[in-house]
Amino acid sequence: MTHRPCHVLFLCTHNAARSILAEALLNHLGQGRFRAFSAGSSPRPQQQPHPLALAVLREAGIATDGLRSKHWDEFAAPGAPAMDLIITVCDDAAGEVCPVWPGHPATAHWGFADPSAGDAPDEVKYQAFRTTLQRIRQRIEELVSLPVETLTPAALQEAARALARS
């Protein structure tokens, strides 16, 4: 890998909850060694990050400035930042046909249940968002402990996939 931060793209169908949580959390915990992005295969028109995702991030002391829902084509286009690792965080996105990513980055799937699913009251969903953030944090803390500067793409992929089993 180069001396620039390790670029990680988190994918989820609508890019409103899990991928947004992961992006913000990795940027917060990555200490400049990582730069995280997120996108979705089909963000809804005018969709923004889920308000409860933003609320639990703020509650955890994690910056939410600049977070927005975006289509994954942004990251497959010429001039997009080159990714080192792409992680799907929902089962739907993992099963979709993804774009061909420039540079053939490492890939992994970390499945998390959708905290915004269903018609539960907001208090219940808020707790689901907290739990999801906690689970994502566990994996990201392990990711940031890896010596990414010295890992080959194949070793990075193996390590990221192993984290899905932790």
UniProtKB/TrEMBL annotation:
The keyword Oxidoreductase applies. It is an enzyme of class 1 (oxidoreductase). The keyword Ligase does not apply. It comes from the Bacteria. One of its GO terms (molecular function) is arsenate reductase (glutaredoxin) activity. Keywords: Arsenical resistance, Oxidoreductase. It holds the Pfam family LMWPc. Residues 6-146 form the Phosphotyrosine protein phosphatase I domain. CDD domains: LMWP_ArsC (cd16345). Its EC number is 1.20.4.1. One of its GO terms (biological process) is response to arsenic-containing substance. InterPro entries: Ptyr_pPase, Ptyr_pPase_sf. This is Glutaredoxin arsenate reductase. It comes from Tepidimonas charontis.
